[in-house]
């Protein structure tokens, strides 16, 4: 008697976005996002729609200059990392991003990191960052995007963000 190999064939489809890791905090179910602006055709929903990578859907600010996104969690979260993606194909600009966290529902914020990135249509047009963190009891996470340091006529953009538990 022969035992049969237990097997499953799972075809890999080209072009599908990589699925989010299992330890990702579901932003839609666990947080409210407060933003300083959004543009009609590029709403905030695009940062959590699962569309990632170059050419993916993105949020574009409704106004030029610095923008702030505050993720207010329904219950305090332990955050082990942040992943974000930003694509800029149209203009050259120097972007500065700052993350701050609050553990008291937004009464006080503490800066956890600040990050610069240079976009250039002929060079870097897509930024993906994976930040390892060890944050406990986070009630609010604030992301401030300065789309162009020292020049306020650029628009902030964000294709994707995820928080790792
Ligand atoms: Ca997206």
TrEMBL record:
InterPro entries: FA58C, Galactose-bd-like_sf. Residues 35-122 form the F5/8 type C domain. Pfam families: F5_F8_type_C. This is F5/8 type C domain-containing protein.
């Amino acid at each position: 008697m022969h035992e049969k190999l237990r097997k499953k064939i799972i075809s890999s489809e080209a072009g599908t976005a990589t699925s989010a890791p299992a330890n990702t905090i579901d932003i839609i179910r666990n947080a409210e996002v407060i933003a300083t602006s959004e543009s009609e055709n590029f709403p905030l929903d695009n940062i959590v729609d699962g569309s990632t990578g170059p050419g993916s859907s993105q949020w574009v600010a409704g106004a030029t200059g610095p923008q702030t996104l505050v993720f207010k969690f329904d219950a305090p979260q332990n955050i082990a990392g942040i992943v974000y993606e930003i694509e800029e194909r149209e203009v050259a600009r120097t972007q500065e991003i700052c993350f701050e966290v609050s553990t008291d529902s937004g009464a006080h914020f503490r800066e956890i990191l600040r990050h610069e990135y240079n976009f250039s249509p002929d060079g870097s047009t897509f930024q993906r960052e994976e930040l390892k963190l060890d944050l406990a009891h986070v009630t609010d996470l604030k992301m401030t995007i300065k789309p162009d340091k020292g020049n306020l006529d650029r628009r902030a953009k964000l294709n994707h963000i995820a928080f790792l538990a």
